[in-house]
Amino acid sequence: MDKARVLSLFVAVARAKSFSQAAVDAGLTPQAVSKAVRQLEVHLGVRLFHRTTRSLSLTEEGARLFELANPGLRLLDEALDQIQNSRLEVDGLIRLVAPMSIGTTIIIPLLPEFQRRYPGVQFDVQLDDHFTDLVENKIDVGFRAGNPPERNLVSRKLGEIVLVPCATPGYLALHGRPQTVEDLPRHRCTGFRHPSTGRLMQWELQVDGATIYQEMPAVASFNTVEGELTAVRSGLGIGQLPVFMVEAELAGGALVPLLPHTATSNSGVFMYYQQRTLMPLRVRHFIDFMAERVPPRLAAQWAVLKAA
Predict the structure, then answer these.
(1) Torsion over CA of 125, 126, 127 and 131, rounded to 10 degrees?
(2) 133: closest CA among 114, 152, 116, 115?
(3) Is the pLDDT of residue 6 over 60?
(4) Model pLDDT, residue 80
């Protein structure tokens, strides 16, 4: 016996003082409601209603059960209504996860604009270069560079990361400027190690209309893009860096793009989340906002590179 179900039907009958009306309210037949109440009576070993062809009233035991159960079921109904209505509320917490580079450079700078639209929203932001399980970590929306997630999640591609070799004017004054792809291995180059595998990533270069992958000896390697960028800014060597992270340096001349015709954009930026059917409205608005604002930001990388 489903105790919660039969108890709620008993309370419905007691409130309506009618099996027929309680059945209509519950979307059941009067026979089904009567059977459920009878099951409860058998389970308790007492009669809960006085039944006649013209009237229905609670017995002493039925009145006592109604007095005890009715407030609890009202609270349960209110709790369910509040949770259901919360899906329609914009106020509340949104939990995000993103790689450090994308989070600090693209996602976080957009949060003030979203909060101006929806002042009642708060954010809990996790910056992590590893893939994060949304369910296990109670995350609403994730961002990822590379390939889309494969774990039964909805993913939306927001754009691509443009990679270009860069160095400081000071480095180039000391070591010269590479003129061809073949010159790069003879220079002091930095490297990026995949945060999950520790593998030194090959450089992606566009040559004669095709992408080539080249092993590049590294004078220093890093497991974060931020670390590699700091090294290149310091004049340590040439690094292949995301344009969206060095826009200010390229525009101001602090970094010089090298062999810009070799720039590639094979790595995507993805937003991922669970199915939207039971999603709170604030999360739905946030997803739509990011889908609107991030793609132009990423697309602008080519214009930045061309102007540098």
Answers:
(1) -130
(2) 152
(3) yes
(4) 59
Token pair of 62 as six digits: 């039925």
pLDDT at 69: 81
With beta carbons less than 8 A apart as the criterion, state whether 175 and 232 touch. Answer: no
Q: Looking at domain 160-267, which CATH architecture does it have?
A: 3-Layer(aba) Sandwich (3.40)
Which residues are bridge partners to 10 per DSSP? none
3-class SS at 155?
A: strand
- CA distance readout (Å), 83 to 77, 185, 271, 280: 10, 60, 26, 10
Cα 49 to Cα 14: distance, rounded to the nearest angstrom: 9
Phi, psi for residue 108 in degrees, rounded to 5: -60, -40
Q: What pLDDT is attached to residue 40?
A: 87
In whole angstroms, give the CA distance from residue 145 to residue 268: 6
pLDDT digit string (tens) for 85-102?
A: 555 568 899 999 999 999
Pick the CATH number of 92-159+275-298 from 2.40.110.10, 3.40.50.2000, 3.40.190.290, 3.40.190.10: 3.40.190.10
Burial of 13 (0-12, 13-18, 19+ CB in 10 A): buried
In CATH terms, the fold of domain 3-86 is: Arc Repressor Mutant, subunit A (1.10.10)
CB < 8 Å & 24+ apart, contacts of 42-47: 43/1, 43/3, 43/6
Express each pLDDT in 150-181 by its tens digit. Answer: 667 889 999 999 999 999 999 999 999 999 99
Does residue 23 contact residue 14 with C-beta atoms inside 8 Å?
Answer: no
At residue 295 the predicted structure's pLDDT band, cuts being 50, 70 and 90, is very high
Q: What is the pLDDT of residues 20-29, one digit of tens each?
A: 999 998 899 9
pTM of the model: 0.71
Q: Which residues pair with 49 in a beta bridge?
A: 58
